[in-house]
Every structure is written in C-alpha cells, then in structure tokens.
Amino acid sequence: MSRYAIVCGGTGGHLGPGIAIAEELMAQNGECLLLISDKVIDSVMLRKYDQFEYVTLPARPLAKSIWKIFKTMKSQLVSLFQCIKLVKNRKIDCVIGMGGFTNLPAIMAAFLMRKKIVLHESNRVIGKSIKLLAWLADVIFLPPFVNFKSRSLNKKVSYASIPLRREMQKIDKCEARERLGLDPFASVVTVLGGSQGANALNEWAIENFQRLNGQNLTVCCVRGIKSDNREEIIGMSDDGNTITNLFLPFCNDMSSLLSATDLLVCRAGAGTIAEAIVFGLPMVLVPYPNAAENHQEVNATHVANDGRAIVVRQEDIDLLANIVIECFQKNLKNFQIITPPDSEHSAVEIIVNRIQRMIGNE
Asked: Average pLDDT of 90-98?
C-alpha cells in the first residue's frame, strides 16, 4: 500500500482539488494524509470529510513588513521540521503539492527525504510556489496549453484539468432549490466570492438584491465564513410576488447550490470556474484585482473567449446589475454553454494514474 501526503491548505481552490485526488487514491487502496493551513476555511471545509486524516501546518504566507517576514520564516522552518518528521514516521512515499504557501515546507521535506514529488497548478498562470519548487518535482500537472519557459521543466509536465470532488454531481434544479429553502420555480442568481467570500461582491448583492427582485430574480449569496449566520431577506417583484433571498456564510453543499443556479456571479478562481463549467452554468466573472500575478484576470479571459462568461472588472461593478438583468432578458443567450462531454478518463483519474505509474503501482 502506498502512502501519500497531499499539501492543500490555504484556500478552497487548493483544498478542493486536493480532496478530489485523495478520494481517488483512497479508492485505489492508497493511504492519504492531508496537510492543511491553520486558516479557518481549511478545517470548515473538511468537517464533512471525516474519512480523511489531516495535520495542520503553522506555515504563513510571505508578508511585506520585516517583522512579519521574520514570523513567516520561523513558521516555514517549524513546518519543515514537522513535515520531515511526518514523512519519516508515516513512511510517506509521495508528497503532492497543490500550490500555495503550505507547499514549501512539505515539498522541501520530501526532497530532503528523497521521496517522490508531484506538483499541481490549477490556474492558467503558474503560481510562485510551483515555479520555485518545480525543479524538485518528478511530475508537474498544468492546465492544457500552459507551459514553463524552461524546456527542461516542460519535460516534467503532464496536462490535466482541475480534479473535482466526487460530490460535485448535478441534481434536479427544483430539488436543489428545495434543499436550500428557495422557491423551486424561481430564477436564481448566485453570488459567490470564493471559499472565503469577497467584500465587493457581498456589498453588491446587498445593494442590488431589491432591484434584481423587481425583475423576478432571486439572489443567493455566499458571503464567506467570517460573516454572520444564514439569513433570509424578503424582497418583492415588480408584479407583487414575494421573493426570498438567501445569504449564507458558507456552503458545504456546492452541488445543490450550483444545481439551483441559473446565472453565477463570481470571482475567477480556477476551481470555481471548473465547477461552473461541469454544471453548465453561464458566468459573470469579476476577477479579484489583487490576485497574485493577476491570475484571475487570465482565468476569466480564457473562459470569456470560449463564450462561457462575461467579464466585469471590479472598477466597473456599478454596471453589474444591468448586465445581470440583460442576461435574463435575453434568456441567457449571451453565453455559449457547452457542458463538457464525458471523457474516457476524468482529470482526477489522469492525475492518479500518472502518480501510480511513477511510484510503480501499475
């Protein structure tokens, strides 16, 4: 039996694909240990996955101030020694890094202990930790048509889309809305700022839900884990119908949420986009302007060029309500929605099969 450590902490965009890979590895009799950050989002997302064992690393992202840089270096060093101990005591065969600031200590520990190393990048811009650690990796998974500048690194590259969790299966739209407490026959605009929420989108939803209600549109907004509890806000359509809008701090049933949705207004994280595509959802994307190396802008442009999305930059968010209403007035014909066909092998199968070949399980 092979043993894996999957480093996937920091954001839902890292944790979700990490869980997907762990599910498939365990289904093939592998043992998986998840290495996560001490951010609240990590432990919250893992509550429903009691089949996984996980360890929290104290690693911190790089900061700008001198004092915070010192704290970052200390946290990374402590995490390195913790990972070395884990790799040795758990007899880990392979460490899989999903990107982000928790990658560094775990991948360095694998390198020092001479274990197999796999890296995975979800975004269409290769992140700093992947670039830094790529030279140590045995295999690097990148989105299709994304490459390194170095030819020697590209020899390590395998292409795969983002692996999705097994739960991400589309269900009947009316059933999904009833699960969430929404009108089963409503037209639903879901506002999603990512696993930790987005203040700009949260504020937009609060300021504009009444206007959208006037057009018979129901708003479902996931505010992020730092917000208050579930809240139902009553609005009124122009023809006098009562509309219940739903504001959630977090959603641990994304399959129901996306199945209930007609139009998704969201950030442009690679994981969110991948899920929306699988569920056949049209998207209005508002890329996070401070994302590292502007990767959300690149993600958004890619799907917009395919006709799956409209891009609205945050400085133009005042136009967003008009755009959403216009999309429904045109019956969402602005979008070229193509639900991807079932391929012979899903992204998670491609990744896991390649990993198992590498470590000699096939």
From this structure: 97
